Hints:
Number of helices: 6
Strand content: under 5%
Distance between the termini: 32 Å
Number of strands: 0
CATH superfamily of the domain at 43-136: Flagellar protein FliS
Largest sheet: none
Oligomer: single chain
Amino acid sequence: MFATPHPATRPASQVSNFYAGVSVGGAAAGDRSGHELVALLFDGLLGAIARARGAIRAGDIEAKGRAVSHALRIIGEGLRAGLNLDEGGPLARDLNDLYAYVEMRLTQANLRNDEAALEECARLMKTLQEAWLQIGPQVRRAG
């Protein structure tokens, strides 16, 4: 299903266009590149998933719900909404599909208190985050 090479194998200029239009509120965001903003989104997403896992272990259903909701917003309003599906080609479409899958699994994890589903989401997003961070030097050189 995701046979397209991951972002690290694409030219940095092509990969940077996938997230045209991503914005993050706050004064600090104004001084950051688009690549750095997406990296912050990945950090926030993985942090929210970790908080949800901790809340499940602690039996804190309210905190779990808040953390999962936060993770879903980061994906939907940041990572997924920022994809440029018109110009991003097959990789942008594959990322969109991956984000949709992770959103579904996060929702299932929330409904079922399923820590294994949260771990799966974290694993998938950590792999993507690592690929994103690897292209950072190429993006800086291209910018």
